[in-house]
From TrEMBL:
Residues 31-130 form the HTH hxlR-type domain. PROSITE patterns: HTH_HXLR. The keyword Aminoacyl-tRNA synthetase does not apply. Keywords: DNA-binding, Transcription, Transcription regulation. The keyword Transcription applies. This is HTH hxlR-type domain-containing protein. It comes from Pseudonocardia hydrocarbonoxydans.
Length: 175
């Protein structure tokens, strides 16, 4: 199995050059989790992404489905557009003024596993006695979709699997 991201490749970053260290020694200000959370970490942004993944693309449709104030939706869509996660694409219905719909970019689509992982977590831990209200299925075969985490060698990494964090550059060390 090929690594999804070149940065995870052992060929790119041989183990021999990576010293084991305490996670607390890494510079957390350059953390990718922190950067991603700053970009999409509020509830409205995640819900906008969820709806975009499910084909709701027009402003009025998003506002109605989410029951979100228009000014809040405008801010979230503007932020997603400025971050390169969403493209604002004009359209015009016959006899109407030009309007815009919002389409996920490749970078935006890369967040699908994150949103699906949140769905799985909610289904497992927050759905209550009635269970989840829906499930996501693969359109091609009809089977349920789930998120798996694997290492670059293809090994399944479940929530109990021990992981370690290694620095990739000397500049990542804290002060």
């Amino acid at each position: 199995m090929q690594p999804r991201h070149p940065a995870s490749s052992h060929a790119t970053h041989p183990r021999a050059t990576l010293a084991r260290m305490d996670f607390r020694e890494l510079d957390s200000t350059r953390c990718s989790v922190a950067r991603t959370a700053a970009l999409v970490g509020d509830a409205w942004t995640v819900l906008v992404l969820r709806d975009l993944f499910n084909g709701i693309r027009r402003f009025d449709d998003l506002a109605a489905h989410l029951h979100i104030a228009r000014n809040v939706l405008t801010r979230r869509l503007t932020a997603l557009t400025e971050a390169g996660l969403v493209d604002r694409v004009p359209y015009r219905e016959p006899g109407r003024r030009e309007r815009h719909e919002y389409r996920l970019t490749p970078a935006g689509r890369d967040l699908r596993p994150v949103v699906l992982a949140m769905l799985e977590y909610g289904d497992r831990h927050l759905a209550g006695a009635d269970g989840p209200p829906m499930r996501v299925e693969h359109d091609g075969c009809g089977e349920p979709v789930y998120v798996e985490v694997r290492c670059a060698a293809g090994h399944l990494v479940d929530p109990a699997t021990r992981l370690r964090t290694v620095p990739l550059a000397p500049a990542l060390h804290a002060g």
